[in-house]
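Researcher: Please translate sequence to structure tokens.
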Amino acid sequence: MATEVLLMADVPELGKAGEVVKVSEGYARNYLLPREFAAEVTPASLRRLEKLRKERAELAKIQLAEAHAKAAKLEGASVTIRAKTSNGEKLYGSISAAEIVDALQTQGVTIDRTQVELAEHLKQTGTFEVPVRLHPEVTVQLKVWIVKE
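Model: Translation complete:
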């Protein structure tokens, strides 16, 4: 027999927070309700969900504003990384996202290495445009110069 529950969090392959879904009683009783992924559909749970939505929306606004502020710092910024080369242009190793983050930190800008979207490590000298995703809606192109040591 199925029962209706209100999802309080996103549950993979079931639904997003705020949706009312039908699940088996055992799944609801043994998994969703104890972990607070869902609540019974009552006026109180609907009010609780609305409060959570407002808090998440406010947090999302703050995170977006912080991302725009950091994007303004990174706009037009560039980093120079010195590396050993073998035949003029080819590097002995490669330049990873972590090294780009370290170079940015020396300039006073702190980002997480997961925000640097390198398709593959940089393996030669030159100038590269590297995308930095600060927020799902905010991406900045960072100029990376790799020069011979």
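Researcher: Any highlights?
Model: Strands lie at 2-7, 20-24, 38-40, 78-83, 90-95, 122-124, 126-135, 138-148.
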